[in-house]
Amino acid sequence: MFVSYLLLTLFHTETAMLARPGGESIGCDDFLGSDKVVDKCGVCGGDNTGCQVVSGVFKHALTSLGYHRVVEIPQGATKINITEMHKSNNYLALRSRSGRSIINGNWAIDRPGKYEGGGTMFTYKRPNEISSTAGESFLAEGPTNEILDVYMIHQQPNPGVHYEYVIMGNNAISPQVPPHRRPGESFNGQLETEDRSLEGREEREKNQEKEDSPGQAPEVLTPESTHAQTFPVRHPDRFPSHRPDNLVPPAPQPPRRSRDHNWKQLGTTECSTTCGKGSQYPIFRCVNRNTHEEVPESYCDSSMKPTPEEEPCNLFPCPAFWDIGEWSECSKTCGLGMQHRQVLCRQVYANRSLTVQPYRCQHLEKPETTSTCQLKICSEWQIRTDWTSCSVPCGVGQRTRDVKCVSNIGDIVDDQECNMKLRPNDIENCDMGPCAKSWFLTEWSERCSAECGAGVRTRSVVCMTNHVSSLPLEGCGNNRPAETTPCDNGPCTGKVEWFAGSWSQCSVECGSGTQQREVICVRKNADTFEVVDPYECSFLERPPSQQACHLKPCGAKWFSTEWSMCSKSCQGGFRVREVRCLSDDMTPGSLCDPQLKPEERESCNPQDCVPEVDENCKDKYYNCNVVVQARLCVYNYYKTACCASCTRVANKHTGFLGSR
């Protein structure tokens, strides 16, 4: 009925669009010029009152996992639409009131596709695209020939299920809920179904065969004995295969009641399937009761011819096979990703494809469920320049290089399109070696090493790395300042003898050092001493000329560098030096007397500057002050047109009013 209605609707829709002479068209009643159309109830010229649209949303909050009833679809429903309102990890399931699972029963998830049930064909959709937010759905045109129940396999919060169907008639229809169950109530965590396993089916078929004894073809008795004859019961849940053409009842003929002929089964039709439970029908022929020879059917009473009943055949299960689903979208939009597909072991039985345990497919190699995929080559990092020079001439600084994210066609794109974890460094530290060095000196010692005659004064000299000073020093080099300087406290006087001078100051002001003294052989005259050959005093014990000394434990003292150049050549500048407190082991210390710390900065070149007049550098316009205020002196044109003004500003910024 529904197919006829659909074809009729399509026919009228197409023909109504065809132009007719005079602009007239054909209505759904096949009359030229009629404006009648088919309403939503399938009635030509109807006003949509011949049917009732039933719709709603199942929003119950579910707590337990398992199957929960959503809505009942009554018998005769059409335009069925059951749709999950948003993608979730839940599944929709469909079951007939007779207990037959149609979609997603027994915790087995079926592939999207078309499934027959309730006298109509349901289209099961489950979008598997990663970007899709659409939920699952059941769609069917109907009409249904029995009551169907829709369930949800609850695994996460219910996003809502929208249902809608059409019922013919004017009476209001509401979704039916069995009195013993409420919407959303679970059936012990699973969908209650009859035993539909292959083993259960085979066992039931064997029992049925034992009861019916189909292996022996019963002879059909004459009309007088038909009261004792029984026929197999027709099972309503079995789908009949095609009946043999030769079993169509013949045209009525005058009865020829004869006890010599009767109807007898002479074999069966070919089984509708080669495995997995098919169907066949007995073939009845009119035969002679005594000879069992086939005679024309007119010899038997046609009203007594048995009606062929469907019989099961080839009950053994078909070989299991791997049912392969569609690949999902690639997990990555570029580069190497993964995609998945569902692979289920299935067997066909009773015209239904059932999901079975994987071991039944162990004779077949299982197809891969995951695979690598690559939609396109990802963008990649490219190093566009070499490293720059180090940011400092000495010590530790930084250097940089240009790193860009480049697409597979060579365009520079946003960094986010490349893998940030693989980004090459575009900045790193660089070590240019020790910085400039300077000579650090102490003051000269106050005492001469000899009390009379020639002696020396000393000071400490050390070359140290200058890590913090900004002075333009280039290293200590070979021009080491002298550590000693001559001194003379006047001539010595005495008599002929070993004459030992005074000990010099200790070679160090702290810690262990040495002292020196002059030892000579002299001959003392009345008022003078005459130095003679040391041989003359050889009979005398010669005093030592050197000894160890230790004045005091070393402490910290101030060291300083030479003064730098003056910062300005005129009008007052300054120069600097670095001062450090060093311990006796020449390591930085903090025990120096702050009151004795040498100055680190002093003024220099206080004289006035004499500006030089450049005849070639003049302002060519009266409003050059505007150029300066607008900071346009960086452009060559304005720098030339307002040379004097731009030069003054440049000298002011650098601290010079003229060059020396």
TrEMBL record:
GO terms for biological process: extracellular matrix organization; proteolysis; supramolecular fiber organization. It is found in: Secreted, Extracellular space, Extracellular matrix. The keyword Kinase does not apply. Residues 193-213, 234-245 have a biased composition (Basic and acidic residues). Residues 613-650 form the PLAC domain. GO terms for cellular component: microfibril. It comes from the Eukaryota. It holds the Pfam family TSP1_ADAMTS. Residues 1-19 form the signal peptide. Residues 174-265 are annotated as: Disordered. InterPro entries: ADAMTS_ADAMTS-like (IPR050439), ADAMTS_spacer1 (IPR010294), PLAC (IPR010909), TSP1_rpt (IPR000884), TSP1_rpt_sf (IPR036383). Keywords: Extracellular matrix, Hydrolase, Repeat, Secreted, Signal. The keyword Transcription does not apply. One of its GO terms (molecular function) is metalloendopeptidase activity. Its main location: secreted. Promotes FBN1 matrix assembly. Attenuates TGFB signaling, possibly by accelerating the sequestration of large latent complexes of TGFB or active TGFB by FBN1 microfibril assembly, thereby negatively regulating the expression of TGFB regulatory targets, such as POSTN. This is Thrombospondin type-1 domain-containing protein 4. It comes from Cricetulus griseus (Chinese hamster). The gene is Thsd4.
